[in-house]
Specification:
Layout (H helix, E strand, L loop, with lengths): L3 E4 H15 L3 E5 L15 H5 L4 E3 L4 H13 L3 E5 L10 H8 L2 H4 L9 E6 L14 H5 L5 E3 L4 H13 L4 E6 L6 E4 L12 E4 L4 E5 L3 H13 L5 E5 L2 E3 L3 H11 L2 E8 L4 H12 L9 E5 L10 H4 L3 H12 L2
Parallel strand pairs: 2-3, 2-4, 4-5, 5-7, 6-7, 10-11, 10-13, 13-14
Antiparallel strand pairs: 1-8, 6-12, 9-11
Protein backbone atom coordinates (compact mmCIF):
# COMPACT_ATOMS: atom_id res chain seq x y z
CA UNK A 1 0.00 0.00 0.00
CA UNK A 2 1.31 3.46 -0.91
CA UNK A 3 1.82 6.06 1.77
CA UNK A 4 -1.34 7.95 2.65
CA UNK A 5 -1.64 11.38 4.21
CA UNK A 6 -3.74 11.24 7.36
CA UNK A 7 -4.23 13.08 10.63
CA UNK A 8 -2.64 11.81 13.82
CA UNK A 9 -6.05 10.77 15.20
CA UNK A 10 -6.94 8.89 12.01
CA UNK A 11 -3.57 7.15 12.14
CA UNK A 12 -4.35 5.90 15.65
CA UNK A 13 -7.77 4.72 14.45
CA UNK A 14 -6.15 2.89 11.51
CA UNK A 15 -3.58 1.31 13.83
CA UNK A 16 -6.28 0.07 16.20
CA UNK A 17 -8.24 -1.31 13.25
CA UNK A 18 -5.16 -3.16 12.00
CA UNK A 19 -4.53 -4.66 15.43
CA UNK A 20 -8.16 -5.75 15.84
CA UNK A 21 -8.09 -7.42 12.43
CA UNK A 22 -4.78 -9.17 13.06
CA UNK A 23 -5.45 -10.63 16.51
CA UNK A 24 -8.83 -11.65 18.00
CA UNK A 25 -7.28 -11.25 21.47
CA UNK A 26 -6.92 -7.48 21.03
CA UNK A 27 -9.68 -5.57 22.82
CA UNK A 28 -10.40 -1.84 23.16
CA UNK A 29 -11.91 -0.58 26.42
CA UNK A 30 -12.84 2.81 27.78
CA UNK A 31 -15.44 5.45 28.44
CA UNK A 32 -17.46 6.22 25.28
CA UNK A 33 -15.01 4.43 22.98
CA UNK A 34 -17.78 2.42 21.30
CA UNK A 35 -20.99 4.02 20.12
CA UNK A 36 -19.64 7.56 20.41
CA UNK A 37 -16.23 6.68 19.02
CA UNK A 38 -14.48 8.51 21.86
CA UNK A 39 -14.74 12.18 22.76
CA UNK A 40 -12.11 12.94 20.09
CA UNK A 41 -13.62 10.33 17.70
CA UNK A 42 -10.33 8.43 17.67
CA UNK A 43 -12.14 5.06 17.91
CA UNK A 44 -14.92 6.05 15.54
CA UNK A 45 -16.47 3.11 13.66
CA UNK A 46 -14.53 0.37 15.44
CA UNK A 47 -17.39 -0.95 17.58
CA UNK A 48 -19.69 -1.02 14.55
CA UNK A 49 -17.18 -3.13 12.62
CA UNK A 50 -15.85 -5.37 15.39
CA UNK A 51 -18.74 -5.59 17.83
CA UNK A 52 -19.39 -4.74 21.45
CA UNK A 53 -17.32 -7.71 22.68
CA UNK A 54 -14.15 -6.28 21.11
CA UNK A 55 -14.72 -2.53 21.53
CA UNK A 56 -16.21 -2.13 24.98
CA UNK A 57 -17.95 0.89 26.47
CA UNK A 58 -17.06 0.86 30.17
CA UNK A 59 -18.51 2.55 33.26
CA UNK A 60 -16.93 5.84 34.38
CA UNK A 61 -14.42 4.08 36.64
CA UNK A 62 -10.79 4.30 35.58
CA UNK A 63 -9.52 2.04 38.34
CA UNK A 64 -12.04 -0.59 37.29
CA UNK A 65 -11.13 -0.20 33.62
CA UNK A 66 -7.41 -0.81 34.21
CA UNK A 67 -8.08 -3.50 36.81
CA UNK A 68 -10.33 -5.35 34.35
CA UNK A 69 -7.67 -5.01 31.64
CA UNK A 70 -5.11 -6.58 33.97
CA UNK A 71 -7.43 -9.53 34.56
CA UNK A 72 -8.04 -9.93 30.83
CA UNK A 73 -4.29 -9.80 30.12
CA UNK A 74 -3.77 -12.56 32.69
CA UNK A 75 -6.19 -14.67 30.61
CA UNK A 76 -4.31 -14.11 27.36
CA UNK A 77 -5.98 -10.99 25.94
CA UNK A 78 -4.19 -7.84 24.78
CA UNK A 79 -6.36 -4.96 26.07
CA UNK A 80 -5.95 -1.41 24.79
CA UNK A 81 -7.39 0.91 27.43
CA UNK A 82 -8.38 4.50 26.73
CA UNK A 83 -8.28 7.07 29.52
CA UNK A 84 -10.61 9.78 28.26
CA UNK A 85 -8.45 12.71 29.44
CA UNK A 86 -5.01 12.91 31.05
CA UNK A 87 -6.30 14.17 34.41
CA UNK A 88 -8.69 11.22 34.67
CA UNK A 89 -5.86 8.67 34.96
CA UNK A 90 -5.22 9.24 38.66
CA UNK A 91 -8.06 7.03 40.00
CA UNK A 92 -6.29 4.25 38.04
CA UNK A 93 -2.80 5.21 39.19
CA UNK A 94 -2.78 2.62 41.95
CA UNK A 95 -3.72 -0.19 39.55
CA UNK A 96 -1.07 0.95 37.05
CA UNK A 97 1.89 1.39 39.40
CA UNK A 98 1.23 -1.33 41.99
CA UNK A 99 -0.22 -4.06 39.77
CA UNK A 100 0.33 -3.46 36.06
CA UNK A 101 3.96 -2.35 36.43
CA UNK A 102 4.94 -4.92 39.05
CA UNK A 103 3.32 -8.22 38.06
CA UNK A 104 6.12 -9.35 35.74
CA UNK A 105 8.79 -8.91 38.43
CA UNK A 106 6.51 -10.19 41.19
CA UNK A 107 6.00 -13.45 39.30
CA UNK A 108 9.72 -13.80 38.50
CA UNK A 109 8.99 -13.37 34.82
CA UNK A 110 6.22 -15.98 34.58
CA UNK A 111 3.39 -13.46 34.10
CA UNK A 112 3.26 -10.93 31.28
CA UNK A 113 0.76 -8.10 31.06
CA UNK A 114 0.48 -6.84 27.46
CA UNK A 115 -1.73 -3.85 28.27
CA UNK A 116 -1.62 -0.51 26.46
CA UNK A 117 -2.99 2.52 28.30
CA UNK A 118 -3.80 5.29 25.81
CA UNK A 119 -3.89 8.77 27.34
CA UNK A 120 -4.71 11.95 25.36
CA UNK A 121 -2.52 14.52 27.10
CA UNK A 122 -1.32 18.09 27.14
CA UNK A 123 -2.89 21.48 26.64
CA UNK A 124 -3.69 23.79 23.80
CA UNK A 125 -7.37 22.91 23.37
CA UNK A 126 -8.93 25.43 25.77
CA UNK A 127 -10.18 22.75 28.14
CA UNK A 128 -11.12 23.04 31.79
CA UNK A 129 -9.20 21.69 34.79
CA UNK A 130 -8.06 18.02 34.65
CA UNK A 131 -8.23 17.99 30.84
CA UNK A 132 -4.79 19.37 29.95
CA UNK A 133 -2.29 17.63 32.23
CA UNK A 134 1.13 16.25 31.24
CA UNK A 135 1.79 13.50 33.81
CA UNK A 136 4.33 11.49 31.79
CA UNK A 137 7.16 11.87 34.34
CA UNK A 138 5.04 10.18 37.02
CA UNK A 139 4.83 7.05 34.90
CA UNK A 140 8.40 7.20 33.55
CA UNK A 141 9.56 7.10 37.18
CA UNK A 142 7.88 3.72 37.70
CA UNK A 143 9.98 0.66 36.89
CA UNK A 144 8.11 -1.86 34.76
CA UNK A 145 6.32 0.61 32.50
CA UNK A 146 7.25 1.71 29.01
CA UNK A 147 6.22 5.31 28.25
CA UNK A 148 6.04 6.74 24.72
CA UNK A 149 4.51 9.63 22.81
CA UNK A 150 4.27 10.12 19.02
CA UNK A 151 4.66 13.54 17.44
CA UNK A 152 3.28 12.78 13.97
CA UNK A 153 0.80 10.50 12.24
CA UNK A 154 3.36 7.96 11.03
CA UNK A 155 4.74 7.44 14.52
CA UNK A 156 1.21 7.43 15.93
CA UNK A 157 0.37 4.47 13.68
CA UNK A 158 3.56 2.45 14.10
CA UNK A 159 4.33 3.16 17.74
CA UNK A 160 0.83 2.00 18.69
CA UNK A 161 1.30 -1.19 16.67
CA UNK A 162 4.56 -1.82 18.53
CA UNK A 163 2.98 -1.00 21.88
CA UNK A 164 0.17 -3.50 21.28
CA UNK A 165 2.71 -6.14 20.21
CA UNK A 166 4.76 -5.59 23.37
CA UNK A 167 4.44 -8.10 26.18
CA UNK A 168 5.19 -5.31 28.64
CA UNK A 169 2.68 -2.64 29.67
CA UNK A 170 2.97 0.57 27.65
CA UNK A 171 1.65 4.01 28.58
CA UNK A 172 0.91 5.64 25.22
CA UNK A 173 0.55 9.40 25.49
CA UNK A 174 -1.34 11.01 22.59
CA UNK A 175 -0.73 14.76 22.05
CA UNK A 176 -4.34 15.81 21.73
CA UNK A 177 -3.67 19.25 20.26
CA UNK A 178 -1.89 17.50 17.37
CA UNK A 179 -4.79 15.14 16.60
CA UNK A 180 -5.63 17.05 13.42
CA UNK A 181 -2.06 17.52 12.17
CA UNK A 182 -1.52 15.52 8.97
CA UNK A 183 1.51 13.68 7.60
CA UNK A 184 2.36 10.71 5.39
CA UNK A 185 1.79 7.23 6.82
CA UNK A 186 3.15 4.15 5.08
CA UNK A 187 1.28 1.24 6.65
CA UNK A 188 3.52 -1.24 4.80
CA UNK A 189 6.80 0.21 6.07
CA UNK A 190 9.15 -1.54 8.46
CA UNK A 191 9.32 0.68 11.55
CA UNK A 192 12.44 1.32 13.57
CA UNK A 193 12.67 0.26 17.21
CA UNK A 194 10.02 1.72 19.49
CA UNK A 195 12.29 3.42 22.01
CA UNK A 196 14.75 5.17 19.70
CA UNK A 197 15.00 8.94 19.32
CA UNK A 198 15.10 10.41 15.82
CA UNK A 199 16.80 13.46 14.34
CA UNK A 200 14.00 15.28 12.50
CA UNK A 201 16.10 18.30 11.54
CA UNK A 202 19.91 18.23 11.41
CA UNK A 203 21.92 21.13 12.79
CA UNK A 204 25.35 22.10 14.05
CA UNK A 205 25.06 24.77 16.77
CA UNK A 206 22.62 23.37 19.35
CA UNK A 207 20.35 20.37 19.97
CA UNK A 208 16.66 20.92 20.73
CA UNK A 209 15.22 17.73 22.23
CA UNK A 210 11.44 17.37 22.52
CA UNK A 211 8.66 14.82 22.31
CA UNK A 212 4.93 14.66 21.61
CA UNK A 213 3.22 18.04 21.18
CA UNK A 214 6.43 20.06 21.56
CA UNK A 215 8.26 18.62 18.55
CA UNK A 216 6.35 20.97 16.25
CA UNK A 217 7.26 23.93 18.47
CA UNK A 218 10.91 22.85 18.39
CA UNK A 219 10.85 22.61 14.59
CA UNK A 220 9.26 26.07 14.36
CA UNK A 221 11.96 27.42 16.68
CA UNK A 222 14.69 25.87 14.54
CA UNK A 223 13.22 27.50 11.44
CA UNK A 224 13.03 30.88 13.16
CA UNK A 225 16.60 30.55 14.42
CA UNK A 226 17.80 29.65 10.91
CA UNK A 227 16.66 33.08 9.72
CA UNK A 228 19.29 34.52 12.08
CA UNK A 229 21.97 32.14 10.87
CA UNK A 230 21.71 29.63 13.73
CA UNK A 231 21.82 25.93 12.89
CA UNK A 232 19.57 23.99 15.29
CA UNK A 233 19.28 20.21 15.39
CA UNK A 234 15.84 18.93 16.46
CA UNK A 235 15.68 15.54 18.14
CA UNK A 236 12.30 13.82 18.59
CA UNK A 237 12.79 11.71 21.72
CA UNK A 238 9.61 9.62 21.10
CA UNK A 239 10.14 7.60 24.30
CA UNK A 240 10.26 8.82 27.90
CA UNK A 241 10.97 5.37 29.36
CA UNK A 242 13.38 4.10 28.33
CA UNK A 243 15.07 7.28 27.06
CA UNK A 244 17.47 6.96 24.14
CA UNK A 245 20.41 8.64 25.88
CA UNK A 246 22.81 7.35 23.24
CA UNK A 247 21.03 9.33 20.51
CA UNK A 248 21.01 12.47 22.66
CA UNK A 249 24.69 12.02 23.42
CA UNK A 250 25.58 11.63 19.73
CA UNK A 251 23.70 14.82 18.91
CA UNK A 252 25.23 16.82 21.76
CA UNK A 253 28.72 15.66 20.83
CA UNK A 254 28.08 17.22 17.42
CA UNK A 255 26.50 20.48 18.60
CA UNK A 256 27.94 21.10 22.08
CA UNK A 257 24.66 22.48 23.48
CA UNK A 258 21.31 21.03 24.57
CA UNK A 259 17.89 22.50 25.31
CA UNK A 260 15.14 20.08 26.41
CA UNK A 261 11.52 21.11 25.84
CA UNK A 262 8.32 19.60 27.22
CA UNK A 263 4.85 20.83 28.23
CA UNK A 264 5.05 19.34 31.72
CA UNK A 265 6.43 21.49 34.53
CA UNK A 266 10.21 21.87 34.45
CA UNK A 267 10.49 20.94 38.15
CA UNK A 268 11.39 17.21 38.33
CA UNK A 269 10.23 16.75 34.74
CA UNK A 270 11.69 14.43 32.10
CA UNK A 271 14.12 17.18 31.16
CA UNK A 272 15.69 17.01 34.62
CA UNK A 273 16.82 13.42 34.12
CA UNK A 274 18.06 14.17 30.61
CA UNK A 275 20.01 17.21 31.81
CA UNK A 276 21.68 15.20 34.59
CA UNK A 277 22.56 12.23 32.41
CA UNK A 278 23.89 14.29 29.52
CA UNK A 279 25.96 16.45 31.87
CA UNK A 280 27.56 13.22 33.16
CA UNK A 281 28.05 11.75 29.70
CA UNK A 282 29.04 14.84 27.74
CA UNK A 283 30.76 17.07 30.29
CA UNK A 284 33.78 17.71 28.09
CA UNK A 285 31.67 18.28 24.96
CA UNK A 286 29.21 20.75 26.46
CA UNK A 287 29.86 24.40 25.71
CA UNK A 288 26.92 25.56 27.85
CA UNK A 289 24.74 24.17 30.65
CA UNK A 290 21.84 21.97 29.59
CA UNK A 291 18.75 24.19 29.68
CA UNK A 292 15.13 23.14 30.17
CA UNK A 293 11.93 24.73 28.90
CA UNK A 294 8.50 23.62 30.14
CA UNK A 295 5.41 24.48 32.10
CA UNK A 296 5.42 26.28 35.42
CA UNK A 297 5.31 24.46 38.77
CA UNK A 298 1.65 25.28 39.31
CA UNK A 299 -1.75 23.72 38.61
CA UNK A 300 -2.81 23.98 34.99
CA UNK A 301 -4.47 27.39 34.56
CA UNK A 302 -7.86 28.39 33.11
CA UNK A 303 -7.97 28.24 29.32
CA UNK A 304 -7.54 31.98 28.77
CA UNK A 305 -4.15 31.78 30.51
CA UNK A 306 -2.84 28.58 28.96
CA UNK A 307 -0.91 30.41 26.22
CA UNK A 308 1.12 32.02 29.00
CA UNK A 309 1.59 28.69 30.77
CA UNK A 310 2.55 26.52 27.79
CA UNK A 311 6.10 26.81 26.46
CA UNK A 312 5.83 28.49 23.07
CA UNK A 313 8.15 29.75 20.37
CA UNK A 314 9.42 32.77 22.32
CA UNK A 315 10.38 30.78 25.44
CA UNK A 316 12.17 28.15 23.38
CA UNK A 317 14.05 30.78 21.36
CA UNK A 318 15.03 32.58 24.57
CA UNK A 319 16.58 29.36 25.87
CA UNK A 320 18.35 28.87 22.53
CA UNK A 321 19.79 32.38 22.74
CA UNK A 322 20.92 31.87 26.35
CA UNK A 323 22.65 28.61 25.49
CA UNK A 324 24.38 30.09 22.45
CA UNK A 325 25.55 33.10 24.49
CA UNK A 326 27.88 30.98 26.66
Amino acid sequence: MAAEKMSLSKAINASLRTALEADPKVLIMGEDVGKLGGVFRVTDGLQKDFGEDRVIDTPLAESGIVGTAIGLALRGYRPVVEIQFDGFVFPAYDQIVTQLAKMHARSLGKVKLPVVVRIPYGGGIGAVEHHSESPEALFAHVAGLKVVSPANASDAYWMLQQAIDSDDPVIYFEPKRRYHDKSEVDTAAIPGPLHTARVVRPGADLTLAAYGPMVKVALDAASAAAEEGKSIEVLDLRSMSPIDFDAIQRSVERTGRLVVVHEAPVFLGTGSEIAARITERCFYHLQAPVLRVGGFHSPYPPSRLEDEYLPGLDRVLDAVDRALAY
